[in-house]
Automatic annotation (TrEMBL):
UniProt protein name: Triokinase/FMN cyclase
Reactions this protein catalyses: dihydroxyacetone + ATP = dihydroxyacetone phosphate + ADP + H(+); D-glyceraldehyde + ATP = D-glyceraldehyde 3-phosphate + ADP + H(+); FAD = riboflavin cyclic-4',5'-phosphate + AMP + H(+)
Biological source species: Tyrannus savana
DhaL domain boundaries: 394-593
EC number of this enzyme: 2.7.1.28, 2.7.1.29, 4.6.1.15
Gene from which the chain derives: Tkfc
Length: 593
């Protein structure tokens, strides 16, 4: 496991936010949440407020962009883990109470971020808040983006800037949404990496040979479109630009000679400043050779992937209005405070003075020689179901304890399976759920009524589990609980399973056959339909459901991923079952006992 300079694996995200706030007088933490807000919320009254966020590990994104002229606040999750619905909702409530004239959520296109911010939006709207959401997808990697769409990566920072300048100028919510949506469509980003990254406490997310680099990878270590031998910087940049501008690539950005762009050269975390300068110079040169005017060039760390040694290039086509918004003043600490002006390789050099024989150099006048400078389940099926009132508290506790023990036992296995699809944290995520459930049971007896039990578990996992899995389990359990209200017949469990699956598909976008946890759930649900047959033995039906889920989980190793992070990876590299499907099958087996 790579070395990390942290206090603890579990507390690293909180410690990083605390450190940021302690060093910046314009920032404040929201008590009890990983939320950072501007300290002058009184200035938000009557203006549109902007919220963004996502997993930690992408610093300075997103908290570095909180300030006047950019974001009003951000919501952070654990490393590479989407923030919780509760924290997003808490941030929205604070801004609503501050008198914001509408709130815009700026979300990167990742399933977990969409789900968590989306559910918070729905809850906030039910409370009367005026909230909108813009999902940014600027990745140019995939020639034919799948169902999940283009990933949201470093271009999101430019959207923060454009939206922030508009909000500061007093623009309304509709106008901001319209203009940032248009700007995001004229933007593209592509990454290139020389090394993997690793979340604290885990092994690297993938491996690259000493002589290899990877094109088009994501900011969590998700695989890109191809691996190639390490190229010189000039050739690597040319390869990136060709891919980004290739008309046969459905994700390409359309650039024509004479157009103006903002160029962002982003250090993915572990590239040296020397290398970054070389790449930036190569990008300017290659764009100029195509007749592209680089109206502005921003070079630095904007959205990282922990310690990944790599770079991404972002191009946004701009007109005069967009450029004024990019140039507008901001107090956000991570936005570069540089003179406004174009980038070019054709700057006239200062002539060096001629040496005069026999005369010393005058270091105060015209004789001075300039130096040269180089310029980031569900326990829904209690065993022994009866036609009457369901399980007692002791039986519920036994089932939940078996589920927790099972998830902790398979933590490393799930992480290993998940590394093929990106960040390798599936086991950690399910372990968080197990610890949360145990802590909850120690604090109070769980309700024995099935509907109440599932509702409590839904709230618990939404708050504590994190990631896409947390909100997906939360959606499933919430919908399943509704089906069990005022019902105690065995068929109610079949209905509950179907309702939960419907909710997951409606918001998550996956379907059976997409190589996700749904494959195990749908197989189990089909078997549970036998509960609707009068006289069916519930225990036998549950045994059949567990067997079906296990078979379906194993079968995912032969499927093409159609949703989630794994959908960005070539099927030939997915040699193992989907970790989410494996986890679901294991939970169902634990429920059976």
């Amino acid at each position: 496991t790579p070395k990390k300079l942290v206090n603890s694996v579990s507390g690293c995200a909180d410690d990083a936010l605390a450190g940021l706030v302690s060093c910046n007088p314009g920032l404040r933490l929201l008590q009890g949440h990983r939320v950072i807000l501007r300290d002058d919320l009184v200035a938000v009254r009557g203006r549109v407020a902007l919220l963004s966020g996502g997993g930690s590990g992408h610093e300075p994104a997103h908290a570095g962009y909180v300030g006047k002229g950019m974001l009003t606040g951000v919501v952070a999750g654990a490393v590479f883990t989407s923030p919780s619905v509760g924290s997003v909702l808490a941030a929205i409530r604070v801004l609503t109470q501050a008198g914001a004239a509408g709130i815009l959520l700026i979300v990167k296109n990742y399933t977990g971020d969409r789900l968590n911010f989306g559910m918070a939006l729905e809850r906030a709207r039910s409370e009367g808040a005026d909230v909108r959401m813009v999902v940014v997808g600027d990745d140019c990697a995939f020639a034919t983006p799948g169902k999940a769409g283009r990933r949201g990566i470093c271009g999101t920072v430019l959207i923060h800037k454009v939206a922030g300048a508009l909000a500061e100028a007093g623009a309304g919510l509709d106008e901001i949404v319209e203009k940032v949506t248009a700007a995001s469509k004229a933007m593209g980003t592509l990454g290139l990496s020389l090394s993997p990254c690793s979340i604290p406490g885990s092994k690297p997310s993938f491996q690259l040979a000493e002589d290899e680099m990877e094109l088009g990878l994501g900011i969590h270590g998700e695989a890109g479109v191809c691996r190639m031998k390490v190229l010189p910087a000039d050739e690597a940049v040319e390869t990136m630009l060709k891919h980004m501008m290739d008309p046969s690539n459905a994700s390409h950005i359309s650039l024509t000679p004479g157009c103006s762009v903002v160029l962002m050269v982003n250090n993915l975390g572990g590239l040296s400043c020397l290398e970054l300068g070389i790449v930036a110079g190569a990008a300017v040169s290659r764009l100029e050779s195509r007749g592209i005017h680089i109206a502005r060039a921003l070079v630095g760390c904007f959205m990282t992937a922990l310690e990944m040694a790599g770079v991404s290039l972002t191009l946004m086509v701009v007109d005069g209005e967009l450029l004024r918004l990019i140039d507008a003043k901001t107090t956000a600490m991570a936005w570069p405070n540089i003179p406004a002006g174009p980038a070019t390789t054709r700057r006239e050099e200062i002539l060096a003075p001629m040496d005069v024989p026999g005369k010393p150099m005058d270091e105060t006048g015209t004789g001075w020689k300039l130096k040269s400078f180089v310029t980031p389940p569900m326990p829904g099926f209690p065993s022994g179901m009866s036609h009457s009132a369901g399980p007692g508290v002791a039986q519920v506790e036994q089932v939940l304890e078996r589920v927790c023990s099972t998830l902790l036992d398979i933590q490393d296995k799930l992480n290993q399976l998940d590394r093929a699809a990106g960040d390798g944290d599936c086991g950690h995520t399910h372990a968080r759920a197990a610890h949360a459930i145990r802590e909850w049971m120690r604090s109070c007896p769980p309700p024995a009524a099935p509907s109440q039990l599932l509702s409590c578990l839904a709230d618990l996992l939404l708050e504590k589990m994190g990631g896409s899995s947390g909100v997906l389990y939360g959606l499933f359990l919430t919908a399943a609980a509704r089906s069990l209200r005022n019902r105690s017949d065995p068929a109610a469990w079949a209905d509950a399973m179907d309702s939960g699956i419907d909710a997951m598909q409606r918001y998550g976008g996956a379907a059976p056959g997409d190589r996700t946890m749904l494959d195990s759930l749908c197989a189990a649900a089909k078997a549970l339909h036998s509960l609707r047959i009068p006289g069916a033995d519930p225990l036998q039906v549950l045994e059949a459901a567990v067997q079906s889920a296990e078979v379906a989980a194993e079968a995912t190793k032969h499927m093409e991923a159609g949703a989630g992070r794994a959908s960005y990876i070539r099927s030939s590299r997915l040699e193992h079952p989907d970790p989410g499907a494996v986890a679901v099958a294991a939970v169902l087996g634990a429920v059976l006992g």
